[in-house]
Amino acid sequence: MSTLAQDLAYAVRTLRRSPGYFAVALVILALGIGGNTLIFGLVRSVLLRPLPFPDADRLEVVWGSFRRTSDDDVAASIPEYEDYAAGLKSFSGLAAFTPVSANITGIDTPVRLQSMVVSTNFFDVLGARAELGRTFVKEDDAGGIGYVAVVSHRFWRDFLGSDPRVIGRKFRFDQDDFTIIGVLAPDFEQPLDDPNTPTDIWAPTNFRIPQLPYQIRVARFLNVIGRRAPGVTPERAAAELRQTARHLAARYPDAYPADAGWELWSRPLMTQVTGTARPALMVLLGAVALVLLAACANLAGLLLARAAARQREVAVRLALGATRRRLLRQLLAESVLLALLGAGLGLLLAAWGVSLVPRFAADALPRSFAIGLDGGVLAFTLALGVATGIVFGLVPALQASRPDLRDALREGGRGATGGLRRNRTRSALVVGEVATALVLLVGAGLLLRSFQRLLSIDPGFRADHVLTFGIALPVPNDPTTGRYFPRAARTAFYERVLDEVRRIPGVTSAGATSFLPLAGSNQIRLEVPGRETGPDAAPRVVEWRITTPGYLPTLGIPLLQGRDFLPSDDSAAARVAIISRSLANRFFPGRSAIGERVRAGAPDAPELTIVGVAGDVRLQALDAEAAPTIYVPHAQVPAGGMSIVARTRMDPMRLANAAAAAVRKVDPEQPVYTVASMEQRVSRVLGHRRFPMILVALFALEALALAVVGLYGLISYGVAQRRRDLGIRVALGATRRDIVRLVVREGAGLAAVGIAIGVAGALALTRTLAGLLYQVRATDTLTFAATAALLAGVALAASYLPARRAARVDPTEAMRTE
């Protein structure tokens, strides 16, 4: 038998003789290594896995920004995209795309799917190729919108049965027939995709077609992605973007107000895709690494205690001729074997955790569809297991392999009387565990306080008992041929739908809007006729919402002045609008806005008379300031796609089927989509903050438990080693209170040192949380004080239990035992 095999066999026999130690150590290792495997799997899938495009580091997303009004990540209008494509020479290609939802028929199961209308060079800019068929060529957008489509691998598999003869097959996209010309590879990733609504169909267009009503420069709805030309540095591209922005601002001053600070800039596609997940995952990776260090410290303490108990065994083996090198190797083999077994169990825990991630964190993590444990994660877990075994086993093995032979072999020798002074290594490990626990507890406390601050924000609406769902009327390539082309037809459809929804038992009111709160931005230019100079000079960019009568009260948005829209505010009536309080304060400070007139959109757009002022609503995010908003009645500006809101007396999701039936009653061909309660929508918005908060809190509790176990074990071990010393103290007149105070003081001293080190570490490390916090400083005094007090109390409790045992020492029995 080889030496390695002998060492492993010896390790197995040793662990079998100590089932309690083996079980405790295995659980600690499984939690520590499993947590690291899970987070590394997330980091690898989300951050480290390259985008499936050639030279993906040269892909950048181009954004506009009104810096002085804090309007970042502004999309492009059709004229702006054309200017960018013609003027930006730092990019070898610029493509535009915008999401649309469509009713897909002509397949086995009619369904509403997310689609993308793209420029014909979209796939060429990305460098993506079709697995079957081809992607687009310039001729595909002849006439504006081509009647061909590229579909996703998922669509081909789930709706077309993976038919290899799918090229040339037709399906109906809303009311138009499209021909499939290509199927993308399964690893294709649509830039800026919503993980909850992945894109399945791409259709080409040149955007500049008469049917599109969005030709004005301030109608910004296009995402623009570019590939930097070979040899062009990001700095050079950024300089050209700034120069282009200045040129456009000088040429079109109405679209880019001088006081708004218009700029153009770009962000690497990988950075854009990972978004807010990167800092959160880095925080989690650091947190779980601290947990593993605490676990190693705890296990090292256990091994030191075992080493003390095995001193006689080791001494006998040394006396019989065993070398210290061989002993060291055997002891390390035991710890590494234990760590590998823990890694195996931890891998199972990580696999279970990964299976839960799409369910609980899909809104918080981009690329969640690809999260999994691949060969790289398995290799990481194996390496981590070996490294962990060496880390927590090395110091105990070194100490165990150098015993004092005379003391170890002496039968009935006197016990240790030096207390914690003889356990300096274990004491240092416990101090490290306490410090680690405090750092993680502070981080969890900061995230929790930040989350509570977000929950306490008044979003400007009432989310309780509100059912929401979307409807988008089909729009053919030639809208003049569509069933819902007449404005009156769209208005009538939504009026009938709302009437049917209001008739559902349990519904108290209903309305509709073009964009729900927290669903993104939809901006338009607003000006006050006759006020072209001074601080209130027009135009301004504001949020634009099309709504029906009853929408504001249904969602609980207060009407501060004036009135709501009325059924009489139709296409034959004078144009009216409701504005938000912040917009009223901006344009009409110090006086009532009721009766004032504004113009939205193009300079020749009709004037709107303000009939109401509504409360501010946080439309983009809870942690973003409420944007100035203008509401216009749907009957005067009928939209094809609207979101229905219905206030209910019961759980709104119980009425989801009834709401869908109400829509089918009006038009059986119109499916509803994105059915959710308003509370669920708010919860999804908070997902990117809730996910790291929960995991950091779990890791902090784990570290706290390890610190308590370590401190309790150290004090208990010290009490057992000092039975004779404590017995003598009692015999000389020490009271039980004196013994308890002595033991607790030693534990409290270790905890105090650990807390002090932890506070210093937390002050240095929690600054990395700053980007995840809302209205809470990374050095928040209350959080630090409360966390330190909690940890001190737990540490005192962990010291008090063995102290009570020590106080019950019988001096006669203790001295007789010695």
Span between N and C termini?
43 Å
Number of helices: 23
Rg (CA only): 34 Å
The percentage helix is: 40-55%
- C-alpha geometry: elongated
Strand content: 15-25%
Question: Features of this protein?
Answer:
elongated, 818 residues, 47% helix, six-stranded mixed barrel, alpha+beta, 23 helices, six-stranded mixed β-barrel, 17% strand
Secondary structure blueprint with pairings:
Elements: H1 3-16, H2 19-48, E1 59-66, E2 71-74, H3 78-87, E3 91-105, E4 111-118, H4 122-126, E5 130-133, E6 148-151, H5 153-158, E7 170-173, E8 176-184, E9 199-204, E10 223-228, H6 234-251, E11 262-268, H7 269-274, H8 277-309, H9 311-319, H10 324-361, H11 375-400, H12 405-409, H13 424-455, E12 466-472, H14 487-502, E13 507-513, E14 523-527, E15 540-547, H15 551-555, E16 559-562, E17 576-580, H16 581-587, E18 597-600, E19 607-614, E20 629-633, E21 641-648, H17 656-666, E22 673-677, H18 678-685, H19 687-721, H20 723-731, H21 736-765, H22 781-807, H23 811-817
Parallel strand pairs: 4-9, 6-8, 15-20, 17-19
Antiparallel strand pairs: 1-2, 1-10, 1-11, 3-4, 3-7, 3-10, 5-8, 6-9, 7-8, 12-21, 12-22, 13-21, 14-15, 14-18, 16-19, 17-20, 18-19
Descriptive notes:
The protein is an alpha+beta fold and 818 residues long. It contains 23 helices and 22 strands. The strands form three sheets. It has a six-stranded mixed barrel. Strands 14-15-20-17-19-18 form a six-stranded mixed beta barrel. A four-stranded antiparallel sheet has the order 13-21-12-22. Strand 3 and strand 4 form a beta hairpin. Helix 2 runs antiparallel to helix 8 (277-309), helix 13 (424-455) packs antiparallel against helix 19 (687-721) and helix 20 crosses helix 23 (811-817). The two termini are 43 Å apart. The relative contact order is 0.11.
